């Protein structure tokens, strides 16, 4: 689709012209270089167009679809969407980076062949398996449940062990070093969960774990947990935690995209939720490799009623330093988690 013309003199002063109006570019670039990327997936497409149509007319309060911020969703907002149609601008200042895709899981193989160890659980209080009821792309996801409490932690999760940039086939295979990533890695995964109670520091659920330790001891882990009544994602086993202003909780009963920048060289982690910055943390570890990971339903034993779906997991090693820690990092052309950045 052809792009609409814009006034270069207006762009040079930090504003853009569409139709006859100039709009502040600070609002325009709120989502990875795309004003019209309403869904925050770095692509302006039918999803964004339908969101705009669904909210057509006067706004009540703040509307993400009121792109020119004039108090209503109208023809000028529609022109923004048409003009921006397609992939967002891939520039570092908008969070777009160069990276190498090391691993992915979209569950379409309907097996655990991409894992070092599958989602094994020896507890009658946990179930795990492949699922076709809820998915992101295209038809499969993974479902885990907790149905009763246990004396020990619930460990219904799958694990990865790396030798360099390669996943080893099983946990009996030793590794001398993990991923060497001086510029860090970006991890993305989708989650859908349901729980009839709020979490506490002693009643928690963990969404992801990473460690430099290549042995079966799994020492020095960093985890992303839900562990208090705010229901916000929280890095755990770290030195300091800083939440972004108005950091959102993790909503239930819907798909949520979590993106984490992790750098063991600088001892830092930054986390976004559906493109919105949530939290950052600092930590210190004796090694800088990233050797082992696990996802799945890892939770304290006193949990007795949790459902968790997982989809489209990905690990990308950065090939350039990340300097923008406001915008969610992303990779041009990486539309499926099992495609490589171009």
Shape type:
globular
Distance between the termini: 22 Å
Bin the helical content: under 10%
Under the CATH scheme, which class of the largest domain? Mainly Beta
**What's the average pLDDT?**
86
- Sequence of secondary-structure elements: HEEHEHEEHEEEEEEEEEEEEEEEE
Low-confidence runs of at least 5 consecutive residues = 1-32
Would you give the CATH topology of the largest domain? Jelly Rolls
The structure class reads mainly beta
How would you sum up this structure, described in words?
The protein is mainly beta and 342 residues long. It has two domains: 8-89, Dockerin domain (Type 1 dockerin domain); 95-318, Jelly Rolls, CATH 2.60.120.200. It has helices at 8-12, 25-28, 46-54, 75-83, and strands at residues 15-18, 21-24, 43-44, 57-58, 72-73, 86-87, 99-105, 126-131, 141-146, 154-163, 166-167, 185-194, 205-211, 222-226, 234-236, 240-243, 256-263, 268-273, 276-282, 292-299, 306-318. A hairpin with a 2-residue loop joins strand 18 and strand 19 (276-282). It starts with 7 loop residues before the first helix and ends in a 24-residue tail after the last strand.
